[in-house]
Structures are given as structure tokens and as C-alpha cells.
Specification:
- The complex is a heterodimer of chains A (116) and B (112).
- By secondary structure, chain A is mainly beta.
- Chain A contains no helices and 11 strands.
- In chain A, the strands form 2 sheets. In chain A, strands 2, 4, 5, 6, 9, 10 and 11 form a 7-stranded mixed β-sheet that branches.
- In chain A, a hairpin with a 2-residue loop joins strand 5 and strand 6.
- Chain B contains no helices and 11 strands.
- Chain B has 112 residues and is an all-beta fold.
- At the A-B interface, strand 4, strand 5, strand 9 and strand 10 of A face strand 4, strand 5, strand 9 and strand 10 of B.
Chain lengths: 116, 112
């Protein structure tokens, strides 16, 4: 299994540009999430999904869109990039069976995004 | 309002000694707690977890303690090794909610 993969690893954008960060997992996990990590801070939840066709907002959703058309893929779209979106972005997936306490998340390697 | 707090940004210990990392939470709905370890330029990896029905969980050199009345958990690493040097994140979740809330992390440095 490749686990959770993210592309690209690095990206530089100009203010106002749009782009999509890709995330895929091959573990048949129901849940997927996107986080951003800024220097000296923890992981802040952007959007998450509890299954194909279902998405919801996290703590910091503004400026980002997501969709979940398949179980495997969960792309994150930046609509109009701003310097405040310069960060490291992590995608994660987890498998949670109802009635069991298994919310362990598996993280991708991250995408380092710089917006000029 | 930060629901999960790690008040110590950094911790330095000598190899072979005990490392104790602390975490406090405010949301009484949290019923599952996890610790993740992160090396530079990598994604976090799961280390150990505990459910709210327990007060201790042990896995090799790593033990997590949960004090529900104080809304406090701690991670003990005994003995500490230089390879343990990393950023440690505490996370909390509500079962089946599909998401976790993370603290800001504690950078552990284990000196040889």
C-alpha cells in the first residue's frame, strides 16, 4: 500500500492564482481531512469528509473548497491564493467503524505552498 | 478558543531519562485522545492513543495517562533516546466525528 499520497510536494503561486492540491489514499478509509500547519502552530482543520459525497468545514475553511467524488481522492482547491495561505498542507485519512474507538489518522507527507 | 493546549513549546532531556509531555483540553465531549510524532519535512505519524474509559495505556517505552477530572493527559517516554527527538502533537476527538483537534505541539530534544 502507498498509504496517503499528496502532490505536489512544493508549489509557488502568485496572489490570485488558483490551484488544486491532490490527495489520494489506497486504504479504503472512510474519513479524510485536510490540515494546514503554520510555523510554531499545530494542525488546523480546513475541511473534512466522512465518506464519498459528504464534506464539512473545519476551523479554517475560508478560501478553500473540497469535493469527495470517490473514496480514494480528496482534492483541496485554493480559489484565489493569498499570502496568508502560505503554509504546509497535510492530508489525512482514517477508518472508523461505528462502535469502535479507532480514529487514528494516517498522514501524507505534506505540500509546502508559498504564495507571493 | 483553543480546545487542546500543549503549554510547553519545547522540552530537552538527557538520553536514558524520562520525557514527560503534557496536554490539556477543555471540551468534555472528547472521548478519544492521541499522540502523534512528527519529524521535519514529514507528515505526523501515530504514536499511541487512549480512550476516555481508561486512565492509562502503555506501548513499549511510551505510556499515556489520562486524568478526566482535570482534563489533562500526559505522554511518558522511558527511557528517552536521541531518535525520539521530534515534535509531538496531542490530539483529541469525539468518536465517529471524523475529525480531530490538535495542540500546537512540543518539540522534544533528547541529548546523547
Amino acid at each position: 500500500n502507498a498509504g496517503v499520497t499528496q502532490t505536489p510536494k512544493f508549489q509557488v503561486l502568485k496572489t490570485g492564482q488558483s490551484m488544486t492540491l491532490q490527495c489520494a489514499q489506497d486504504m479504503n478509509h472512510e474519513y479524510m481531512s485536510w490540515y494546514r500547519q503554520d510555523p510554531g502552530m499545530g494542525l488546523r482543520l480546513i475541511h473534512y469528509s466522512v465518506g464519498a459525497g459528504i464534506t464539512d468545514q473545519g476551523e479554517v475553511p475560508n478560501g478553500y473548497n473540497v469535493s469527495r467524488s470517490t473514496t480514494e481522492d480528496f482534492p483541496l482547491r485554493l480559489l484565489s491564493a493569498a499570502p496568508s495561505q502560505t503554509s504546509v498542507y497535510f492530508c489525512a485519512s482514517s477508518y472508523s467503524r461505528r462502535g469502535s474507538l479507532t480514529d487514528t489518522q494516517y498522514f501524507g507527507p505534506g505540500t509546502r505552498l508559498t504564495v507571493l | 478558543d483553543q480546545q487542546v493546549k500543549q503549554n510547553s513549546p519545547s522540552l530537552s532531556v538527557q538520553e536514558g531519562r524520562i520525557s514527560i509531555l503534557n496536554c490539556d483540553y477543555t471540551n468534555s465531549m472528547f472521548d478519544y485522545f492521541l499522540w502523534y510524532k512528527k519529524y521535519p519535512a514529514e507528515g505526523p505519524t501515530f504514536l499511541i492513543s487512549i480512550s476516555s474509559i481508561k486512565d492509562k495505556n502503555e506501548d513499549g517505552r511510551f505510556t499515556v495517562f489520562l486524568n478526566k477530572s482535570a482534563k489533562h493527559l500526559s505522554l511518558h517516554i522511558v527511557p528517552s533516546q536521541p531518535g525520539d527527538s521530534a515534535v509531538y502533537f496531542c490530539a483529541a476527538s469525539v468518536t465517529n466525528a471524523g475529525k480531530s483537534t490538535f495542540g500546537d505541539g512540543t518539540t522534544l530534544t533528547v541529548k546523547p
